[in-house]
């Protein structure tokens, strides 16, 4: 008897690519049956979608499957650049990733030459619950890790936020939407207790068994409500614009077990445009399809007074720079002056969903109260 063929798990497989082109970032908001929607949009039969996503998740090609939140609507957040002693960067990186649930992305970054801010080598995203202080939490992290300085850069506006690494492989430099994108604000939204219960149950990563036709049944029970009530509340959260996309997150930094990488390079690009032109510049930059993130953030004098930041991922370094050059040329065409621009290249990287729970925040601060430097 011939043994059954193994299920292909690499993102380069033709069927997997069709699935991932949808499942990474094309299912917007809360959907009652997200895997059916992935099947419909990708043209791949539903049982095959389930089989492939489960197999990729088990193989580590997909690192997590979850409903994302627009955390900027639920918590105070910022990009945080850290100045750390060179011999402490790896240990600080490890501690931030493993021990602080409010630090999401943890990335080392470098520049091609010494520029403004190039001595800030460790970058994290930081979120704290509503009513709490980013500075308070960052001060605790500074005390525990021995970091020399930090700079918080909250988002004043959002122009692009997505993943879609598979889909972006075919995007050409300069490919963009017909019109400038709209800027989303970061004003927080207040939720009642039931909404928080549903939200916290909804946001956790799906297990392999939950990759199914009804992924939310168990989550409704966890939230202590019926399935219909769970969906009704989730749809109300949709209307409040606190729900992001349903996504399969690829492991896009580390190679798979067979050595295949999704991307090899990522650049954090900075632009300084004249005061008063931030929204217009961000809307023009953010319309480029290659961007996974684009924000209005104030870098201040340590970073050359930049105010627009964006991220591009790619398999070839020069290709990433070609995309950057196309954006720069578009700004010139639009008559938007750029006073300064820079590139910070990503190195070591780990990503986890940022915690936003007030209860967890209180627990973390109680745990580390009075504790001195650990690194």
Q: Categorize the overall geometry.
A: globular
Report strand order across the widest sheet.
6-3-5-4-12-9-11-10-7
The whole-angstrom Rg is 21 Å
Distance between the termini: 58 Å
Number of helices: 12
What structural category arises from helix and sheet content? alpha+beta
Catalogue the unreliable spans: none
Total DSSP E strands: 12
Strand content: 15-25%
The whole-number mean of residue pLDDT values reads 92
Give me the strand/helix succession: HEHHEEHEEHEEHHHHEEHEEHEH
Share of residues in helices: 25-40%
Main β sheet profile: 9 strands, antiparallel
Descriptive notes:
By secondary structure, the protein is an alpha+beta fold. It has twelve helices and twelve strands. The strands form two sheets. Strands 6-3-5-4-12-9-11-10-7 form a nine-stranded antiparallel β-sheet. A three-stranded antiparallel β-sheet has the order 1-8-2. It is globular. The N and C termini lie far apart (58 Å).
Descriptive terms for the model:
single chain, 375 residues, alpha+beta, 3-stranded antiparallel sheet, 12 strands
Short structural summary:
With 375 residues, the chain is of the alpha+beta class.
Secondary structure topology:
Blueprint: H1 14-23, E1 27-28, H2 34-42, H3 46-59, E2 62-69, E3 75-83, H4 89-99, E4 103-110, E5 122-129, H5 134-145, E6 149-153, E7 155-161, H6 165-168, H7 193-202, H8 217-223, H9 227-239, E8 243-250, E9 265-272, H10 278-285, E10 293-297, E11 308-314, H11 317-333, E12 340-350, H12 358-368
Antiparallel strand pairs: 1-8, 2-8, 3-5, 3-6, 4-5, 4-12, 7-10, 9-11, 9-12, 10-11
Helix pairs in contact: 1-2, 2-3, 7-8, 7-9, 8-9
